[in-house]
Amino acid sequence: VFLHPIAMRLEFWGEVAARLSSNYRTICVDLRGHGRNAPAEDPYSIRDLASDVVALTRRLGLPPAVFVGCSLGGMVAQGVGINAPELAAGLVLSNTTHRTSEAGAEIMRGRARRCLEDMQGAVASDIERWFTPAFRAGAPDKVEEVRRWALANDPLTVANGWLAIAALDNEAAARRVAAPVLAMTGSLDPASPPAATRAMQHAFPNARYVELPGAGHFAPIEQPQAYAKAIDSFAREQFKGDI
What is the pLDDT of residue 29? Predict the structure, then answer.
């Protein structure tokens, strides 16, 4: 089950999911207010987003699944593992964090304000943080597609998302997660750098760390083959002979 970053949509996972679909049932989700969903004008929390995913998982009658989340999606995947552990065969937490510091929270609140004041400027700033300079130069069509996805969002939905991230604190709850965890990031990710991702790894009792050399924050788009390979290796261990 794939969970996308803030301001993205289920198509974010297209290349990764395609590489895994021959061996797994792959389900890509539009989070609340994103993609084909109605705008989320009321405030929401990470727990609210996780509750949405839990409800969908139960409605589909899925067996325990590996939940794969990038950035905001990784925070939502944590919420599933914390609040509905029986649904999680494993968690892939990529380019994300388990807690937001007070300094980080102030940055998130600033991003929320900018979304409401200047969505185009906010997205332009996000693009620079989401992709490495080399990828922006080498794959302008893909970067432009991501820009269009981001600008298609209602600004209030995205602002509420930044405020939800500002309030994230799974420091204590992470210790209760028994599911295997893959903590993954790109070596060039400025938003979730390797040192911070290793700190997240240590917050979960059954976690390992993988680093994708040369990848930035949107690692699933920059390096879909390497990203899918890491998920496949992790998922095979969780599902054993069931694939």
Answer: 98
DSSP secondary structure of 188-199: T-SSS-HHHHHH
Share of the chain above pLDDT 70, in %: 99
How much is the pTM? Answer: 0.97
Contact at 8 Å (CB) between 80 and 88? yes
User: Are 214 and 189 in contact, with CB atoms under 8 Å apart?
Assistant: no
Residue 65, SS3 per DSSP: strand
Residue 11 has φ and ψ, to the nearest 5°, of: -65, -15
Distance (Å, whole) CA 185 – CA 183: 7
Q: Which residues of 46-55 are buried (b: 16+ CB within 10 A; e: fewer)?
A: bbbbbbbbbe
Round to whole Å and give the CA distance between 194 and 179: 22
| β-sheet bridge partners, residue 209 | 183
Count of CB atoms within 10 A of residue 64's CB? Answer: 15
Q: 29-81: per-residue pLDDT in tens?
A: 999 999 999 999 899 999 999 999 999 999 999 999 999 999 999 999 999 99
Residue burial 157-173, b: 16+ Cβ < 10 Å; e: rest: bbbbbbbbbbebebeeb
26 pLDDT exceeds 90?
A: yes
Across 132-218, the runs of DSSP E, i.e. the strands, are 181-186, 207-212
Q: Which DSSP helix (H) or strand (E) runs through 124?
A: helix 119-130
Q: What is the mean pLDDT of the chain?
A: 97
Strands (E), the chain: 2-3, 28-29, 65-70, 88-94, 181-186, 207-212
For residue 211, what are the β-bridge partners?
185
Please compute Rg for the chain using Cα positions: 16
